[in-house]
Design goal:
The chain has 109 residues and is mainly β. The protein is built from no helices and ten strands. The radius of gyration is 13 Å and the shape is globular.
Amino acid sequence: MRKNTVNKSSVKALEALPGIYRKTLIYNEHMMLCHFLLKENSEVPLHSHQEHQIGYVIKGKLQFFTENEEFLAKKGDSYVFESNEKHGAKILEDSEVIDVFNPPREDYK
């Protein structure tokens, strides 16, 4: 049976990395929606994946970096990483973000 709605309060958070908590909310064969809680001073190391990624900062502040640039993302900002683009982040404040992946990440199901 297909679920058309999922409330984030009903999904258990997984600690993906120290201080990085992920909830995979909902997905289909084309895209995936994830909610992240990120603790101040935690880090997401430089990495890449085949899925395109678009995100939105609900609260907090992050310093993103790629192989070519760094940029600050704060409450109200959105960002995009292309397929296989190397990226990472330093969490400057306790933060909350939403990420959409296309196609869905198999490792997040």
